[in-house]
Design brief:
The complex is a heterodimer of chains A (about 220) and B (about 290). Chain A is mainly alpha-helical and about 220 residues long. Chain A contains 12 helices and no strands. In chain A, helix 6 packs across helix 7. Chain B is globular and about 70 Å long. The two termini of chain B are about 40 Å apart. Classes of the chains: A mainly alpha (about 220), B alpha/beta (about 290).
């Protein structure tokens, strides 16, 4: 009988991460799509960094910053009771940073591709920027929103390096499926590793397949 | 009364140019802006709507200041009482025809206005359709209706009919005129079509390189005043045929072809595609009643 807790933890992590990302990415993507600020290229670069940076680098710095042995980590622990190292909360934070581009990019490109006049028409009708975003812009980029949600979700399921660095391998707390697979292989339990791998493989395959079917090739355009 | 003074440096099609206009438009007038592409017509509409900021100037509508660079007043587009029909119509694809109009309502709008406009624009059968399924003419009617929902004091039309075929155009011109009269609007329309301007506007403002070059009644601005003929039409030369000593010039006036015989001297300056005025002195016209 397999231990389901790594899989359950993985999906908890993916759901929480995706929800948080969805909430923060919409204003961020909207700002990036709209702004003429000189800061834009810098923010864009920062958002995209996790695409190219080895996850271990990100994990390493998070580890350093949040370690209870330095003052910021200590302050968090004492004042907010928040320990971000080797904890589920830490995994969520790391995953949010690590999957940020997968949520922001599709939403940003969806918003930039909307004809400018649609927003202007709404402004001329006296509607505020927020109302325009909620009632006009977002409903017209549903496929981009779906792509962002699914990519961020799938990417969080698949992450390994950053989780290992900041979360370690605590059963029920930070031991997600990808870590469990690694662990099983280390202890030469290939059958156990295979079970987890097969389940992850099947789930991610179906999630992505759904997106392709629903969006009709949107992902391809996004990738190019 | 709309009092417009705008100055702005624009990057036109032929490099940089200074838009510099000073216009007064009477309440209730139907005014057309006419001129070559890149003359600044659309920019003027956008500056009135608040979508583009002038470098300096003033904009007063009915005594209310919408923009004044001297005292740093600039109302946002949301606060300006304008309706605008964009060249690409800018309908909201996520909403139905009725949804687009409902969205346009504000707190002061009376509940019946949407139904009233749907009737006025003959949109009854289409009201539950998605706007992406509509033809150009239908979209145009929806965009026009949507821009009038708030009964704005100024209606701005940016080449609203340029994408439509001639018969559709003529119908929609009637819709626009109807709306203009029924809701007592002050309308400013950008148009490239002289016939359209003749039919619709009280006044035409001719622009070139950001400046007003001529303004007045369409007949005064476009027609050559030396002609005293009673019949005047404008049209486009479609073909010039050479037949013996004479030339046969085919001209498209509205939807009708007219063939006019010309001599070599007359044809010398004419080219296919040019706009011309066809006039006749009224000594022998034939009048026939039309049975419709």
């Amino acid at each position: 009988m397999i231990d389901w807790s790594p899989l359950i933890l993985t999906f908890q992590l993916a759901v929480v991460t995706t929800l948080i990302l969805f909430v923060i990415s919409i204003p961020l993507a909207n700002w990036l799509a709209d702004t003429k600020s000189k800061l834009k290229p810098i923010i864009e670069t920062l958002v995209s960094m996790p695409l190219v940076l080895p996850p271990t680098v990100l994990g390493f710095y998070l580890l350093v910053v949040f370690s209870p042995s330095n003052s910021f980590g200590q302050w968090l622990d004492e004042n907010l009771g928040l320990s971000l190292i080797f904890s589920f909360e830490g995994l969520v934070l790391a995953s949010v940073i690590y999957s940020l581009p997968f949520m922001v990019h599709p939403i940003q490109s969806g918003l930039s591709n909307l004809p400018k006049t649609i927003k202007e028409a709404s402004y001329v009708l006296g509607k505020s920027k927020l109302e325009t975003l909620l009632k006009v812009s977002l409903p017209n980029i549903k496929s981009s929103l779906l792509t962002g949600i699914v990519l961020a979700f799938a990417h969080t399921i698949g992450e390994f390096g950053v989780v290992l660095m900041i979360g370690g391998n605590i059963p029920g707390e930070t031991r997600v499926a990808s870590i469990a697979i690694y662990d099983e292989v280390e202890s030469l339990n290939y059958a156990g590793a295979n079970t987890y791998s097969l389940i992850l493989f099947a789930i991610t395959f179906f999630i992505l397949l759904m997106v392709y079917l629903i969006n009709g090739g949107y992902l391809k355009r996004f990738d190019s | 009364m709309i009092d417009i003074q705008f100055q702005k440096n624009l990057n036109g099609s032929s490099g940089k140019m200074l838009l510099d206009i000073d216009l007064k438009i009477v309440k209730g007038a139907f005014v057309s802006l006419y001129g070559p592409s890149g003359a600044g017509k659309t920019s003027i509409l956008r500056m009135i709507a608040g979508l583009l900021a002038p470098d300096q100037g003033k904009l007063k509508v009915g005594g209310e200041t919408w923009y004044d660079s001297a005292v740093k007043v600039s109302l946002s587009p949301q606060k300006r009482d304008v309706g605008m029909v964009f060249q690409d119509f800018a309908l909201f694809p996520n909403l139905t025809v009725r949804g687009n109009l409902e969205y346009a309502k504000n707190k002061q709008s009376d509940g019946a206005i949407v139904g009233e406009l749907i009737d006025l624009m003959d949109l009854g059968d289409l009201q539950d359709s998605q706007t992406t399924m509509l033809s150009g003419g239908q979209k145009q009617r929806v965009a026009l209706a949507r821009s009038i929902v708030q009964k704005p004091s100024v209606l701005l039309l940016d080449e609203p009919l340029s994408a439509l075929d001639p018969s559709m155009r003529s119908k929609l011109q009637d819709y626009i005129l109807k709306a203009h009269k029924v809701y007592d609007l002050t309308t400013i329309m950008v148009s490239h079509d002289v016939a359209e301007i003749f039919k619709m506007s009280d006044e035409v403002i001719m622009l070139d390189q950001g400046c007003v070059t001529k303004r007045g009644k369409p007949r005064e601005v476009f027609a050559n005043n030396e002609v005293s003929g009673k019949f005047q039409f404008t049209g486009e030369i479609v073909e010039i045929q050479h037949q013996g000593f004479l030339y046969i010039i085919s001209i498209l006036i509205g939807n009708d072809f007219v063939k006019v015989i010309g001599e070599k001297e007359e044809v010398k300056d004419l080219k296919v595609g040019e706009r011309v005025m066809v006039a006749s002195k009224a000594f022998n016209p034939i009048i026939k009643k039309l049975h419709v």
